[in-house]
Task: structure prediction
Amino acid sequence: MIEIQGHRGVLATRHGNTLASFVEALRLGVDAIEVDVWLTSDKQLVLRHDAVIGSADIRLETMLQAVVEKHPATTTDVDLESRPPSLPETLALLRFANATDVVLDIEVKTEGAAWDNYGHAIVTALSKVLKAHRDEQALRVRSFDPQIIRAMSGMLPGVPLVALSRESPGRSVGLYPSVVQDLVSAALATGASAVAPECGILDAGLVAEAHAAGLKVFPWTLATSDEISAAVQLGVDGICVNDVALARQVLGGLGEPLPVPRPMTLPLLRMGSPA
Result:
């Protein structure tokens, strides 16, 4: 079975890293929801892709000050949430939706710098939250930063870890390499159980070498039906996509099993008996 991972929820039709986007992903049916997490100045784990929007840095703001990431090319501002959700709020949403088997795939965001106080603070805060929920929610942690994955491996044994990689001409202290052999070696050395290469560096050699080393392969972010079909032919274990409906259509057409849709319904309010 090839895992469908909703990138920031359903980025094709919703603002990313919002509760509305996660609800839409569950409605369509996904195996995992990929989110991005930062630590705010008031020590809250808040979901957003970019650290800086405008001139405001989420790491220097409080949770209530943080603004939502917008994607005006793909969606409107109707019902735009007033702030990004926190990680605990997202965990609560999945419990409410009876979706504790849907993997919450958490990307720990950094700036690709050497290990610093911020890196230590975010992995400490994240491991504390995830330890409290790992027995009730399917979880996974990913990062481009091998320092983050190594630290999480020590702090949170048993939770699967993913080494993210993008095309890069050289090596950096704060990034996994893009060369296949180096990526596989670095992933194993830091305790990862999967690699997540950028779509442009995915090929048969990478999949074969990763699988030979016991690592799963989750390419990102697949945007077209051709990219999805090609990844399936290469034998990947999951696909990170913006358009969940498209991914379901392509995988269904290829005879792959699909995750169950989980439309959310609010509980009915019961009227009290007249006095």
Q: What stands out?
A: Residues 268-275 have pLDDT under 50 and may be disordered. The two ends are 56 Å apart (CA to CA).
